[in-house]
Amino acid sequence: MTNLIGQSLGRYHILEQLGEGGMATVYKAFDTRLERNVAVKVILPQKQQSEKFLKRFEREAKALAQLSHPNIVKVLDYGEHEGMPYLVMEYLPGGTLKQKLGQPIPWQEAARSLAPITRALEYAHQQKIVHRDVKPSNILLTQSGEPMLSDFGVAKILEAEETVDLTGTGVGVGTPEYMAPEQGMGKVVDYRADIYALGVVFYELVTGRKPYRADTPMAVMLKKMTDPLPRPSQFVRDLPEAVENVLLKALARQPADRYLDMSLFAEALDKLAQGRLPKSIPSSLRPDHIPGKSLQWRWPLALGGIIIICLLTIVGGAVGLTRLVSSPNPKTQATQPAQSLLTTSTTTPISPSEIRVSSLTTTPLPAKTAAATLTTTPIVSSKDEMGLIYIPAGEFIMGSNRDEPYFWGAESPKHTIYLDAFWIYRTEVTNKMYRACVQEKACPRPVQPRSYTRNDYYDNSQYDDYPVIYVTYHSALAYCQWIGGRLPTEAEWKKAARGTDGRLFPWGNGELKNNLANFCDTGCPSDEVETGLNDGYRDTAPAGSFPDGASPCGALDMAGNVLEWVGDWFQIEYYSSSPFENPLGLASGTRQGIRGGSWLSERSGLRPAARASLKPDNSLNILGFRCAIVAP
Fold first, then answer.
1. Does the pLDDT at position 187 exceed 80?
2. How confident is the model at residue 92 (pLDDT cuts 50, 70, 90)?
3. Which of 58, 288, 373, 515 is placed for a possible disulfide with 295 were both Cys, Cβ 3.0 to 4.6 Å?
4. Lowest mean pLDDT, pick from 146-160, 221-235, 268-282, 506-520
5. Is the pLDDT assigned to residue 565 strictly greater than 90?
6. Within 10 Å of residue 160's Cβ, how many Cβ atoms?
7. Cβ atoms within 10 A of the Cβ of 384, count?
8. What pLDDT, on the 0 to 100 scale, is given for residue 475?
9. How far apart are the first and last CA of the chain?
10. On the CB side of 7, how many CA atoms lie within 13 Å of its CA?
11. What residue segments make up the domains of the chain, in order of their start?
12. What is the SS3 assignment for 33-91?
C-alpha cells in the first residue's frame, strides 16, 4: 500500500501507522472536524480488485456501526477515498494485550483481563456477528487498562437463512494459532469458534505460550486436529484444577464439547477472577443463561411444608365441546369448530410414555401419588392426538419475593391474578407431531435436525416421542395455530405448572430427585455421578418420562426436559404493572418469554416462577414448546 502518512482521507489526516493485517492497515489519524484522534482502518490495495471483498467490507461497516458495548471499540464512520474504503474507529492509546505476553501471568489476573471480552463477544453473538479473529493484538487497552475488543474486519454477519459465509469457505480468514479446528478446515463456523479463540488467548496468558507450536500455519492446524491439547498444568506449577478445566472445555476439539454459549464461558471466568474455584466447571444452562439474559440467583434456603394439590373439576359440557371462543390474545386466534380440534377417547393412548389424564379428582392427594391416580377420560386433540389438561377459571399466585429460595430479579413482586379457563397440552410437542405440521407445509423444519448428542434427532423415528427442538417462536406459534390453538400466555403456563398454592416446583416444595424431572445440577452433566443426581439422560428424554414430577393439575415436563416458548413479549418489570385479569404481556417488544428449565438446567431454573427470554428468531437444542386452547 502507498504510504498514507501525511495525507488526508476526507476529513481524517493520517498521522502514523499503528499496524497491518491481512486485509487492512490501521493508522492513527486526526479528525479535523471533531478535533480528536481516531484510528482509521484502510483496505489493502490488492483486495480492491475483488468486488466480493468490497461488498463484504461495506456490509461489515454498516453492521458494526450498530454495535454498542462498553468493551467493543466503536465504529464511528465509513468512507472511501480514491478507491480505498476505510473504517474510522475510536483511538485507544493503551496498546494491546499482545504486549503482555511472553511469560505466564497469574490465572486470576488473566481471567480478570478476559472476562469483559467474553461479555463483548456475548453481545456481538446476540447481534448475529461472529468475530472470527479473536487474538491478543485485537484486544486493545484503554489508558486505565480496560480491555476493548477491536477489528471485526473478518466477522461474518449471521443471517438465519444463510448457510455459506461471505468468503465461500472461510479458509484464510483468521489467525491460524487462534483458529478453531473447524475454521482451519474451511467449514462454516459459528460463535463457538470465538469461544475456542478466546480460550487460546486465556491459555497463552496463563502459561506464557500458545497451546500448539509448529513451523508453518498448516502444521499448526494439523496439530489442532490430531494432537491432544497440552495440559496447561505442565507449564505452570500448582495451576488449580478448576482453571485447567476451564481451558480444556473452551479448547475442546469438537464445537459441541465447548461451552454452549459465550455467557457460560463468561461465568466461568468471572468466578475465577473472583478467586472462586469450584470442583468442576458448570456446563449447565439455566434460563438466566440464555443469550441476552443475565439474572441474579441464589442457592436454596431450607424449606419444609405440606404439598397441597390443586382442586379441579371438569365442567359438565367440557367433553362435548361444540365450539371454541376466539383467543383474547391479539397476536393469535383460535376460531375453528371444536369438533375438528378435540375428540374424546377412553381407550386410545396419548403416547407410549404418557399416563392418560384429563382431569383431577376433587380429593387432595399426596404429591408422590398424584400422577399415578389421575385416570379419568382424556381429552385428545384430533389434529395431533395430544392429550389436553383442563385448567378452570380462578386466581393463582404469580412470581416470588426476594427472600424466597433461588430468587431471580424478574420474578417480583409476588402477586395474585385471575385467569379464565383454558386447556393446555400435557407435554411438549414431539418430533412426530411437528413433522406432520411440516408435511402439511404449515410449519418450517427445525433450524437444526440434531440434538446435543444425536445427529439425526429430528428425522429418526427412534426419537418420535421426544420433544421437538431448534424451533423459533414463529415456528412454535405456527404449529399451535395449525392445531387451532395458540401458545400459552406466561400466566397460563405458570398456573398449569404451579397450581394455585405458590409452590416452589411443579411437584411441590420437596427435594429435587432423579424421578421428578430431566435436569442436571451443580455443573452437570460432569457432576451427575458425583452428586448422585443422575436421571439417565444427557440430552432430551421422551415426552412424559417423569410422571412423578407432574404438576398439581397433571401436566408433565413443566420442569426440565426442554425450555418452552410462551406467547408474551418479555419485560423484566412487567409484574409491577400487569393487570389482575388475564395478563397478556406487552403489546410489542424484542424478546419472547421462555419457561420451565431444561435437561441442562440447575434446580433454580426448574421453578415455575423463574423468568427468562430470547429473541423470537432464535432457537436452541434445549428449547421446545406446548400449545394451549381457550376453553368455552
1. no
2. confident
3. 288
4. 146-160
5. yes
6. 11
7. 18
8. 96
9. 74
10. 11
11. 8-90, 97-281, 386-632
12. CCCEEEEEEEECHHHCCCHHHHHHHHHHHHHHCCCCCCCECCEEEEEEECCEEEEEEEC
Instruction: Identify the pLDDT of residue 534.
Output: 44
Helix boundaries (H) for 214-372 = 217-226, 241-250, 262-273, 367-370
Contacts 24+ apart (CB under 8 A), 326-331: 326/630, 327/486, 327/630, 328/420, 328/582, 328/584, 328/630, 329/486, 329/489, 329/567, 329/584, 330/584, 330/587, 331/477, 331/486, 331/567
The architecture CATH gives domain 386-632: Alpha-Beta Complex (3.90)
So what's the pLDDT on residue 588? Answer: 83
pLDDT of residue 573: 82
391, β-bridge pairs = 422
Q: What is the pLDDT of residues 5-58, one digit of tens each?
A: 888 888 899 999 887 766 678 889 999 998 899 998 887 665 445 666 667 677
pTM value is 0.46
> Residue 187 has which C-alpha cell?
467449514
Q: Pick the more confident residue, 550 or 324.
A: 550
- 212: pLDDT strictly greater than 80: yes
- Residue with cell string 476505510: 86
343/517 Cα distance (integer angstroms) = 29
Check whether the bond before 136 is cis (ω within 30° of 0).
no
Task: For domain 8-90, give the CATH superfamily.
Answer: Phosphorylase Kinase; domain 1 (3.30.200.20)
Contacts of 571 (CB under 8 A, 6+ apart): 585, 586, 589
> CA 130 to CA 231: how far, in whole Å?
28
Give how far the C-alpha of residue 391 lies from the chain's centroid of Cα atoms, to the nearest Å.
30
Phi-psi region of 159 (alpha: psi -120 to 50; beta: other; left: phi over 0): beta
Q: Are strands 623-624 and 563-569 parallel, antiparallel or unpaired?
A: parallel
Angle made by CA atoms 568, 569, 572, in degrees to the nearest 5: 110
610 near 406, Cβ under 8 Å? Answer: yes
C-alpha cell of residue 404: 424466597
